[in-house]
Protein 1
Amino acid sequence: MTWTAPEVTRTRAPRVADERTALEGWLGFHRQTLLHKCTGLTSDQLKTASVEPSNLTLLGLVRHMAEVERWWFRTCFAGETLPDLYNTDEYQDGDFDLVADADAESDLATFVVECDLADRTAAGRSLDDTFPSPRSPELRMDLRWIYVHMIEEYARHNGHADLIRQRIDGATGE
């Protein structure tokens, strides 16, 4: 039996909420939307590039966002020393470039785990908690910035995912 990406139930972000609930709600919705774009596709379909010469794939987007979740919440905010999941010195964009031999089922599971670990890292922390900017350590950033950045990053990549999914099987939607 051929593996296909599982169905995902998306939870809408609240329409009226305090700041933290709204940020967590929108981030969760966008995470679920990326997985929703993968629902029902085989490993080979998830590795299908959008259009030449681009190497952008749904699996590459999932792998990239796992890296981004890990980087911002755990490495930058929590200060954990963690290796990249897919990127190497030789392949700086391994999340996108090295999908041909990737295990899609494992990579989707890794994404879910990284999202959960990111949530655990932020749990109980104030949106005002700060950390040094990775590019300019003398500057401080706050947890709120990470939430806003992650939402915009997912929104951009979910637009890419829409186009890739439509190219694969014609499915459209948010």
Protein 2
Amino acid sequence: MNHIVTVQDAVTAFADFMEPTSAELDAIEQEMPVILADVDLLDAHIVTLDRTPTELDDRRIRRARRRALAARAAQVNHAAGTSLPGGAA
């Protein structure tokens, strides 16, 4: 009895075209502050899932939310600043 197996996954699992390009890695690097701020916000929310939030939990969530919003604003401002032609301010 001959078994039919697929080797396609083994061949393409390590193909060069599946690796991120330099541009994709640069985009991830640019988004990293936003990603880390969102992780902090999620951590603050996760802590309060199984209990009633305390005053300290509320402050931690507010601070994490402000950091996430600030990181997003900084990313948008940076992207807008680099895409304006002619050095317009």
Protein 3
Amino acid sequence: MEEKSIALFFTQGSSDKEYRVQLTQEADGWHVYAQNGRRGKALKSAEKSTGGMDYAAAEKLYDKTVKSKTSKGYTEDQTGAAFSGGENAGRKTDFEPMLLTAISHEEAIARSGRRFAQQKHDGERRGILSGPDGIQFANRKGLEVGVRETILADVQKLAMDLPEGFVLDSEDMGDHVVVFDVISHPLVVKGETTFAKRAKVLEALASYVETAGLTAIKVDVPIPEDVFFATREPSMREAGAEGYVLIEADSVYLAGRQPTACKMKYVESCTARVKARNGVKSSVRLEMLDGDDWIEVGNVTVPQGVEQFPEAGNLIEVEYLYAYEGGSLFQPVFKGPRTDVDEEACRLRTLKFKKTDDEVAAMAP
């Protein structure tokens, strides 16, 4: 049993509203409170509960209160941009994403084969499903989530021209999605169509999106790796991109981690669990799973202005340059909470460890 709180926002036209909800424990039991009003002004307070309640009943009321607002477009995004689909949040969908295998730039160059390359985008994984059940958006776990209304509107337009249905893989960047793969489509058979053919579908989709003026949808069209490394990768690195993706031309889309689909990140990131706060300092101790054991992997500073300071047991995303053997992260940077994964994502083996000069030399072609 734990206390909860959330801040929601809604901005549309002349409206700029704020709504806050708390689940708190008092001497006579659990209470649910809410405050609402115009952002930046004094908020009106009200108790949603009727005196002290048992935890299960109070949590149910808390969830119902939050859902009543998210279903109307309120979001935790402080821009307050209206969201749609919040009323179905958490419902299981058919989205089962393919996961990428992490490699170094040296490994990427050393490997040979016919591959296509794309930029790696630093958003949140988002499956886009259109079919008999309407349009759904799913997170990395395959659970339905809400998106901004502008994104939904553009996907609805796309669905009108593809009534047979489709499933797209994308990154939600906040005000738009970047589509980087096609799982199913009138021209794509799930688990059978090669990436070389899916790349052609992405190229056609990009052309349609541009012609139709769908500004909330962008498409990353794959290009052959030799062209990518010769023309795009150097400028992408210079511009501070997160990294790139390499996918074998003859591979098919399969759920789970695949050796035929690789990612190279200029700055690495991992999911770690907060072990404890470092006294009164603005930093926390991190730990990751090695087998069944939790191993400490150093500390990370939590920047000022973070709305909710991470607590013990919370999962957070951390950027780092590399890890030393034993798990210590070099130059870690706090990126934010992770609520779309579970503790299995905190595996120590997901870290990119610093290679010796001999190891790098051995990878050369």
Protein 4
Amino acid sequence: MSDRVESIGTTCVQGGYRPGDGEPRQLPIYQSTTWKFDTSEHMGRLFDLEEAGYFYTRLQNPTNDAVAAKIAELEGGASAMLTSSGQAANFFAVFNIAGAGDHVVASSAIYGGTYNLLAHTMRRMGLECTFVAPDCTDEELEAAFRPNTKAVFGETIANPALAVLDLERFAAAAHAHGVPLIVDNTFPTPVNCRPIEWGADIVTHSTTKYLDGHGASVGGAIVDSGRFDWTAHADKFPGLTTPDESYHGVVYTERFGLEGAFITKATAQLMRDLGSIQSPQNAFYLNLGLESLHLRMAQHNKNGLAMAEHLAAHPKVAWVRYPGLPGDSQHELARKYLPGGASGVVSFGVAGGRAAAETFMKRLGLAQIATHVADARTCVLHPANTTHRQMNDAELVAAGITPDLVRLSCGIEATEDLIADVDQALEAV
């Protein structure tokens, strides 16, 4: 087989699973909770992490592993795992290296559910988080770090504020303090941006969105770049660099190396104890979506830019945020990190505020009001009323959410039909 590096489109279609002679062409669904063994000694070696293999789907499953391997290939990472949701992926990614008594620095412009996870739920677990604006000064970013900081977290494109994270700057700050940068890459997908190439160490996804692409299955993924040297900062990450007594003293960085330590620990400890698994059936659906990801993202990007340009010129639209739009405050960062496109998500304000936004949404025909984003069908949401409803006014402002903000996720329908639908809805405002 050729050593030539494949294009991302080929990896979307064929990555992760290559059938051998006489084997199924389609990725098989291993719809089984358990595996049979001839001896208990063999199973014991698996339980002690001395040998690779499968014994219980809560920990590993061949279908899931093949799809995770494809996502790792797409992101340019060393290893990956699937989780039950994007929220589970973000929780595992942080909790794998930070817990009670620790601290995390995070961008304030992130999805409301992730903000709640870091600001409230994990705080009850003893972890503190300092939020900084993605466009904060270098001095403000530096001041956010503490001696017990264990990670920096952000979103490549914030949901729904659409702020673009300066990946190189945040990665440099994290690495200067000996901690990894964790980046949620849900909106761009690896088709539009591969954060690892810009210095990110861990990449997460809500696979429920563009990666699945059809609103068919909930899931998440964590990709480890394999580049962060946990042993160089061993005192900060004892869970990876000191013996794990629950596995007879295994040291993950010694047994599995820098490329395998993080994902192995997250699987062997967190998935073992918390069980937030993605079902093999959902992993199968996810793989079907991944096969067309590169094709779908091209149309999402086209529709997003066309819609942003149209809305920016509409008299009943107060403002538009789309990183791919020339003149947008995020445009220069988008040109650097998202040269292929800025996804299909557009945020804007309807002239007349919250009431006008609600009227506009009621009149839409093709665009459906749904608690979803980033799939084949165009959908629309009012974040202040839904996904960010638990935030107070100050938190909303910090996250870039205003009362009139409408999040429009352009699907892969015909561009002219989407614009016509928006126009007729705006006539009622």
